[in-house]
Fold this protein.
Amino acid sequence: MRPLRPALCLLTMIAASPAPAWAASPAPYVAADRTAPAIREENLLESERFWPYQVALASPWKPEGQSAPFRAGTLGVLVRVEGDGRAVLDFGSEGRYRVPVGKTDVVQRANEVRTGVLVKRAPNLAQAIATRLVDSEAERIGYQDPHAVARSSGFLAVFADPGAPQLAELASAIAPLRGRHGVMTVLVPQGEHPDAEVRERLRALDWRVPFVLDAYGEGYTRSLRGDGAPLPAVMLLSREGRVLYDRPLAPGIADDLAAALDRAFGPAPAAATAAR
């Protein structure tokens, strides 16, 4: 993978993005639920509906390898909360780090989402990618419908080089899983490939899944997978960004992935209609 272009970290991308189209929807997404239990560190992982989109450092925190600590109040995009008491935060050009939850205000902000003090307009991961996906099914190159992205129950993210010969085998293997339980398959292209080239490659394979724009593929790969994570790979993610399955691509992965989909989203496949 080529060196990261600093401006394309997740925080920078989202901060520069226009408001998603669903913000003006007549039936907006509502995350607030005052009847839900208060959020604490102990139940934060299971309370992903209330995860805020951005969080701030509650106190100075020094990442490993850095010469100086980040100041209290430094903002980052919440990529996800993990089961070890840490949150993955993307600080844009400052990098992506796993930060102890107690060093952030994520619990406070989650409670503000729960009570409606802080308005959350869409599931976190859906919001992060909605305006950066190309619809490979459309007759002309264009963006994926953000409402369809927001309605998805989760995302099957495939991190692979669209120019690699193995893509045909991969597409054939996992194509039957497309739309299973309402989960949207998304290709995150690796390497430098013009968007029109990626679109034509997917259409030629009859695997017309949405894909991340070339300009943003590397930034999303860094944010979602982190530096040094094996590639190519498949991640199954909740609509909020919680990791449900994460494996390097290997023979037989389709059966394993199907089982993971069923465990996470239900015991039987949803209607055969593919998620778009």
Notes: The chain has two domains: 30-120, 125-265. Residues 36 and 114 are 7 Å apart (CA to CA). Residues 253-265 form the longest helix (13 residues). The chain has eight helices and ten strands.
